Amino acid sequence: MKYKKSFTSSRIYQLISKEKVEYLRYYFDFLWAMTEKEIKARYKKAVFGFLWVILNPILQMVVIGLIFSYFIKIPNYFLFLFSGLLPWQFFSLSLSKATPSIVYERTLLQKARFPIEAIPLSLILSNFINMIISFVLLIIVLSFWQKVIFPQILLLIPALLWLLIFTIGLSLLTTSLNVKWRDVSFFIQTVLILWFYATPILYHLSLIPRILHPVFNLNPLTSVFELVHISLINQGFLDFQTLLLNLLLTIIVLIAGILVFRKESKYFSDWL
Description:
By secondary structure, the chain is mainly α. It is built from 12 helices and no strands. Helix 1 crosses helix 6, helix 2 packs across helix 3 and helix 7 packs antiparallel against helix 8.
């Protein structure tokens, strides 16, 4: 009897595990399909196609660099600026597009049942893939110039993954809030402008007076961008206290984003 009971329990566990695997497979297939659709739709009928992934930050680098290079004295300033504009373009574009995404796709929610978080996540992942392509091209160019430093370049991997995690957490949070309060999307657009200048993209922390460092410690992107600069061009300033606090804030934002999205997603249909 005990053997039969044990066999039944084992069989039930196997069935549950199989269902979980099937669901995860369906989930990731669906998420990838949404991501692929977003990538194709973005560059549809665009003459330069994927080249815009790197053309846009290049144009920004030239315009911004010509102005700020007179005031900020950093070696290889244009390269320093470009390496910061790539991750910023991913972050700002992902957050600004993901925040109102549920509202824009309201008809899709009413027609079918699917994991709702796939809508903002697909936007973020498509932008992340674009950013990775941009960095690969940049590293290839730097390799020809013999400016790639090993193993320092490997710091780029945790830096970009960190940026992805923070972007996902914050986007889930703002997306949830925007369904209920549509002002959130406009608020984010304004905050991103200020956030750009409060992040070490145009400068690195060593140029900032020590008295202002506590302000930058509250910006989770500070460590990410300093890691990017250090990994690519061996420039930047980062202490353990800033790194630890930024990491803690990232975890808090991620947990808050997931919890709020799970709680509020039940009411999305009512609010839309």
